[in-house]
Design a protein that fits this description.
Length: 479
């Protein structure tokens, strides 16, 4: 361990060590340095200074503007929306004309093995029998979760509706007319010139897709521009009433939630600095394209079909994403080990070696202190943990978010960030890796660096953080 630590220090600080060595060599003979400087003609010195200033100014002008997370807020559901397992089972038994006994048993087994707890919440529409799938029910849920999240982010920030220059709202399935973006503009009376975008159909990855879009806009916008991002998934109109098991999964895993964040290209009031953003789309593969697919079953019931290979598909997409993301964030010591490993495998193959030669798996804990993995399900978290070689502590925020709030789709990574801050684990300078997956199939990675930790834990975990983490039952294999 000591040898590995020394290796990382030397490799990661090679340039600094080399510069220090050169400086020491030069300063050992200061009179020689002074003599050389005096021998330079004044005109040459002036030209060099002007050129250096010009290059520095050109570099600053061409450098992309930094983007910051000013604040974020999450919808905190009222306990009256709770959907414990017993209630789900009772409601299913009271709807025999919609769901058969075998489907009920399957759903209960799934819930028991899913990693969800008894405090997850569903909208009012799910508490009716049969569920209320009307447009009004969906609008009511939309206004509840979106406005609560936006109210929270404004309450926690020094900015208000008048300071918002751009608006991005994402929701995958439910897309009414007027769209959610117009709903937010109307509610908060945003300025007439506000630019707004409404994203749909991107599934659970849309929240980080929105961050990437906001980054691109802010890097070319005037200084002081602010973007409000709202991420949610509306469940009321999407309750599946058939018996296809692959289409029953969303009923069991998805829960109500929403998150809002304000991004800016001004460091004033910033809490996090946005780092690298990498998006990978694997829709060219037919199996990936149909992995999360909205369609009708044989009886004509519309729902979302989740492939049994969802966790495996997520793992493959993550590998592709890491290939692009890793070199941008990993320290030189880890990249060098990967390069040596790749070279070793090539040499063995050229030498006629027929066995499988495994590449070195980089340690991403050298690049990040915290990980926010989309709480899409127990199997998805397991796949990412195993693929990245993370510890149980590294994925605690993801598992506890799944247990307390369920799969809240594109907003889940912000609930996880809130968990880390509520636990008091976020420190200035800490780096965070957010990972999300979505229909398409998409994998998104976003890096953050903490500028200022939260002053308090007044977020979605305020009433329950003292009870977490909880012990989850051991399950050999996710459903």
């Amino acid at each position: 361990m000591l040898l590995k630590a020394m290796y990382r220090v030397v490799v990661n600080n090679f340039l600094a060590l080399a510069a220090a060595a050169v400086a020491v060599a030069v300063l050992r003979r200061p009179e020689e340095l002074v003599a050389r400087l005096r021998s330079v003609p004044p005109a040459h010195a002036v030209i060099a200074a002007v050129l250096a200033a010009g290059v520095a100014r050109l570099w600053r002008a061409r450098r992309a503007r930094e983007v910051y997370l000013v604040e974020y807020g999450c919808f905190r559901p009222n306990p009256r929306y709770r959907a414990p397992f017993a209630t789900c089972k009772e409601h299913a038994h009271l709807m025999p004309y919609l769901v058969d006994e075998e489907s009920v048993a399957f759903g209960i087994r799934l819930l028991e093995r899913s990693g969800l707890g008894d405090e997850t919440c569903v909208p009012d529409a799910y508490h009716y029998m049969p569920p209320d799938k009307s447009m009004k029910a969906s609008r009511d849920e939309t206004e509840l979760v979106i406005f609560s999240a936006v109210d929270d982010v404004f309450a926690r920030s020094a900015l208000g509706p008048a300071d918002i220059d751009m608006l991005i709202v994402n929701c995958s399935i439910f897309t009414p007319t007027p769209v959610f973006a117009d709903m937010v503009v109307n509610k908060y009376k945003l300025r007439a010139e506000v630019q707004n975008v409404n994203l749909s159909g991107m599934g659970c990855s849309a929240g980080l897709v929105s961050v990437g879009l906001a980054k691109n806009l802010l890097q070319v916008a005037p200084p002081g521009t602010n973007v409000l991002i709202v991420s949610t998934e509306i469940l009321s109109s999407q309750y599946y009433v058939g018996t296809e098991r692959a289409m029953l999964l969303p009923n069991c895993l998805f829960r109500m939630g929403a998150a809002a964040m304000i991004l800016s290209n001004s460091p004033q009031h910033a809490r996090f600095r946005l780092g690298r953003v990498v998006r990978t789309v694997t829709a060219a593969r037919d199996s990936d394209y149909r992995c999360v697919f909205q369609e009708e079953d044989e009886q004509g019931n519309t729902g979302i079909r989740l492939s049994k290979d969802l966790a495996t598909t997520a793992g493959h997409a993550l590998k592709t994403n890491i290939a692009a993301f890793g070199p941008l964030v990993l320290p030189a010591s880890e990249q060098l080990l990967v390069a040596f490993s790749f070279l070793k495998r090539k040499l063995k193959l050229l030498g006629g070696h027929t066995g499988k030669v495994r590449l070195y798996r980089p340690d991403f804990r050298t690049a990040f202190e915290h990980f926010c993995i989309h709480a899409g399900g127990r199997g998805v978290i397991d796949e990412v943990q195993q693929g990245l070689g993370l510890s149980d502590d590294d994925v605690e925020a993801s598992r506890m978010t799944l247990h307390r709030f369920g799969n809240t789709s594109s907003s889940s990574v912000l609930y996880e960030l809130a968990y880390i801050e509520a636990k008091g684990r976020m420190k200035k300078g800490d780096r965070v890796w957010m990972i999300s997956f979505g229909a398409g199939f998409d994998c998104n990675s976003v890096a953050w660096e903490c500028v200022k930790p939260a002053a308090d834990a007044d977020g979605p975990w305020i009433n329950c953080i003292h009870r977490y983490p909880v012990e989850l039952p051991e399950i050999a294999k996710d459903v």
